[in-house]
Amino acid sequence: MKALQIVQGDITTLTVDAIVNAANQMMLGGGGVDGAIHRAAGPELYEACLKVPEVRPGVRCPTGEARITPGFRLPAKFVIHTVGPVYRDGLHGESELLAACYRNALALAAENACRSIAFPCISTGVYGYPLEDAARIAIREVQAAVSARASARPDMTPDMEVIFCCFSERDKQVYDRIVQAPGG
Ligand code: APR
């Protein structure tokens, strides 16, 4: 992997191969980063999401899984939609589901020959996941995918650039601190 970067800003403005959307299972838009991505991508994104088959009524993307669509009016070529867990108390499989979001999004990016991908802080808004815990999982999963590349697991394109796009400066500081001192 070329680089792991942490930036502060609006993910919809990033010129990368794929941006990740913190969606819900219905995949038809919402608030937060989901709303921002749908507004910036234009109505074609909604139409593309509608065409994603339901796996059961009202569910296009189960929690922890990921789906890909074009980015339409976004600078990003693709949107990878993933659904983070709603945080209850940390005892309902939340950490495993959040880790699966990162793994599945990276795998889908690699399958689509993406060389760069940007993640928002999945689940840490409306879904209530404590930021620091979520950031540790995000960083651990991306770093694990990097080392997996050495053992030829197909979930990381060589030289893929991974960006963590934090909406607030405070969130960025948490990511920066964890990357610098993972155990601290
Ligand atoms: N760019 C980057 N990050 C953003 C942006 C943006 N334009 N807008 C919001 N964020 C950040 C939030 O500050 C938060 O850190 O995205 C993170 C995730 O927050 P949410 O968007 O609330 O996502 P999540 O907690 O996963 O909840 C998902 O929210 O709107 C709905 O449809 C969505 O139901 C789903 C739920």
So what's the overall shape? globular
Strand content of the residues, in percent? 15-25%
- CATH architecture annotation: 3-Layer(aba) Sandwich
Using only C-alpha atoms, the radius of gyration works out to 15 Å
Alpha-beta classification: alpha/beta
Query: In total, how many beta strands?
Result: 6
Which superfamily, in CATH terms, is the homologous superfamily?
Leucine Aminopeptidase, subunit E, domain 1
Helix and strand run: EEHHEEHEHEH
Overall pLDDT score: 94
How many distinct folded domains?
Answer: 1
| Helix proportion range | 25-40%
Ligands and ions found? adenosine-5-diphosphoribose
CATH fold-level assignment? Leucine Aminopeptidase, subunit E, domain 1
What strand order characterises the main sheet?
1-6-5-2-4-3
What can be said about the biggest beta sheet?
6 strands, mixed
Uncertain parts: none
Number of H- or I-type helical stretches: 5
Distance between the termini: 24 Å
State the name of the first-level CATH class.
Alpha Beta
